[in-house]
């Protein structure tokens, strides 16, 4: 996998949810915080205002995409002056965030706005530093020639939610995944008015990106700072400084974190034997792997796997 695909794979938990909603002015809707989730809002038709809980209102037009990577509470309204609904949108309300939902009409007779709202459920224990480094709100305005692939994903998803056809249960989650990829890709790519720092800067730095791709391409390889520096085309000390500055961790610290994160995913999502998982993430000794895993996750691999499987059982309260 490439770097971004890897990041999304380890972060995601469960199915993404979405709905296409029609609003008639005047209207205002609160969306409660969703712990362990990233939310999005897309304006398909009309216009509205995004009302963050701790920032100024943001005007939104047709085609605008808003991504809230940390699941913060917010509101949408036809005007900043419109009173908000007394009842906040419940993320579990099937009218709004089931896997695919028919249009929900709020009939007041005013101008119409159609939005696409949804959430990606994430595993907070496996949050990648890339996600943690994102700002509270990512606003991707529409415009002529702006983000054509993102626009295409939005249009396909909106059409499928408006009129689900055969195979919708397969198509909609895939389109939601595609939307997430294009949102993150659009943010990461440098734009004239967008010069993100942190991980986005790291992924636009060829030497650091080369080292990150090497780690993700062959996690089990016995990487050293020197061998990663060779991948980056730099000498050891300048590479280590550059990597640490942009990624926020020294190269071998990130390597160990990624190995343990990958191991946790394999333990949760596959039935691979512990020795096979150990080899997959670069440990020839199952004992050494178990010790490293316990340091990282607080429990031995076998116990971690049993707890993860128990949580997945229907009716589990854990």
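Sequence proposed for the structure above (318 residues):
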């Amino acid at each position: 996998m490439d770097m971004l695909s890897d990041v999304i794979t380890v972060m995601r938990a469960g199915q993404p949810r979405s709905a296409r909603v029609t609003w008639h002015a005047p209207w205002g809707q609160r969306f409660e915080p969703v712990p362990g989730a990233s939310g999005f809002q897309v304006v398909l038709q009309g216009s509205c205002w995004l009302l963050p809980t701790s920032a100024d209102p943001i005007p939104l037009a047709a085609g605008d995409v808003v991504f809230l990577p940390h699941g913060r509470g917010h509101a949408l309204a036809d005007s900043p002056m419109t009173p908000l609904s007394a009842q906040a949108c419940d993320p579990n309300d099937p009218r709004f965030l089931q896997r695919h939902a028919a249009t929900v009409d709020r009939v007041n007779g005013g101008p119409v706005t159609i939005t696409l709202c949804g959430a990606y459920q994430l595993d907070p224990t496996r949050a990648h530093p890339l996600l943690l480094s994102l700002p509270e709100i990512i606003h991707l305005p529409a415009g002529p020639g702006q983000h054509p692939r993102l626009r295409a994903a939005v249009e396909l998803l909106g059409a499928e939610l408006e009129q689900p056809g055969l195979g919708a249960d397969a198509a909609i989650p895939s389109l939601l995944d595609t939307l997430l990829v294009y949102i993150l890709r659009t943010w990461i790519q440098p734009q004239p008015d967008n010069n993100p720092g942190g991980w986005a800067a790291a992924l636009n730095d060829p030497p650091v990106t080369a080292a990150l791709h090497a780690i993700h391409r062959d996690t089990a390889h016995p990487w050293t700072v020197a061998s990663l520096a060779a991948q980056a085309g730099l000498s050891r000390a300048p590479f280590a400084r550059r990597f640490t500055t942009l990624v926020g961790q020294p190269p071998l610290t990130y390597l160990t974190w990624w190995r343990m994160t990958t191991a946790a995913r394999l333990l949760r999502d596959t039935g691979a034997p512990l020795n096979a998982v150990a080899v997959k993430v670069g440990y020839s000794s199952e004992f050494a792997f178990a010790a490293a895993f316990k340091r990282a996750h607080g429990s031995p691999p076998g116990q971690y796997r049993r707890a993860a499987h128990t949580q997945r059982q229907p009716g589990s309260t854990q």
